[in-house]
Design a protein that fits this description.
277 residues, mainly alpha, 53% helix, elongated
Length: 277
């Protein structure tokens, strides 16, 4: 009888019902004799917080470890950086650390918003879905715009993105994006080797000609790797590109090689031509 009650096989009552009845009883908040503090409710709260704290610590440790699913096994590639997506990150987080994600989302999102997450987050919560690239690099780090699930092409637009709504509050931030990015920052604070997202941010900052001081500030809050680390990462990416070019030179009959194509644009000067030189 006791075993069926504890393992949830009892049809009449279970352990949750018992604890809930104790917690919500009006007698559980009655002050005891002077100096003894509160009774059941306060003690149950403390016990529950300690249990959740242990769960969060274990989940975070597992996710930040080498086998957590969010470490780059063979270093970053250009293909990974160009097709970076928050959906696989969120999917791994939900699978390995569901308690952590639920707590962070409870802080950032009201209950109604948690019950009705956006499409990309519902895909992340569904472990049966394949990890398709649904959020491009600029969308994940700049405009926070979530692309369509079929989008797999590298980002070639400005940081705002052509499909981002503009003006009148239509480009509201997605709180679920903030939750996942905040989780990546917290895991970096726990384990300095957990830098996959921070490396992507470093590459994005370099691509947008960010000042070195920006790296310093964002590095101190766990949002990016240092400027020197970004340079080392880019050197590794260049070696990967060289290897790919050598392979193409051997296998392909014809390849077109080009450098960065720069466009010259005249700056309008209303006084040009009318001023004596």
């Amino acid at each position: 009888m006791v075993s069926s009650f504890l393992d949830g096989r009892s049809k009449e009552y279970n352990a949750v019902d018992l604890v809930n009845a104790m917690y919500r009883s009006r007698h559980s908040t009655t002050r005891a004799r002077e100096g003894e503090g509160f009774l059941a409710r306060k003690k149950l709260q403390q016990w529950a917080v300690e249990v959740v704290e242990d769960m969060v610590s274990r989940e975070a440790e597992d996710l930040a470890s080498k086998n957590g699913g969010l470490r780059l096994a063979e270093g970053m590639t250009w293909d990974f950086a160009a097709h970076f997506s928050l959906v696989p990150l969120a999917r791994v987080a939900w699978k390995t650390s569901p308690t952590c994600v639920r707590i962070l989302s409870a802080v950032a999102i009201a209950k109604e918003g948690i019950k009705n997450p956006p499409t990309w987050m519902r895909q992340a919560q569904d472990s049966t879905q394949p990890p398709n690239a649904t959020v491009n690099l600029a969308a994940a780090t700049a405009s926070l715009h979530v692309a369509s699930p079929s989008h797999t092409e590298p980002n070639t637009h400005s940081s705002a993105g052509p499909s981002t709504p503009s003006g009148q509050g239509n480009n509201r931030r997605d709180p679920w994006v903030i939750v996942i990015i905040a989780f990546m920052m917290l895991l970096n604070a726990r384990n300095l080797r957990f830098t996959m997202f921070q490396k992507v941010m470093g590459v994005w900052l370099f691509a947008n000609s960010a000042a070195r001081s920006v790296y310093d500030v964002l590095g101190r809050i766990g949002l990016s790797v240092a400027y020197s680390s970004t340079l080392d990462l880019l050197k590794g990416l260049s070696l990967t590109a060289q290897s790919s070019l050598r392979k193409l030179a051997v296998e392909d009959i014809l390849s077109v090689v080009y450098d960065n194509i720069n466009q010259k644009r005249q700056v309008y000067d209303p006084d040009y031509g009318s001023v004596l030189l």
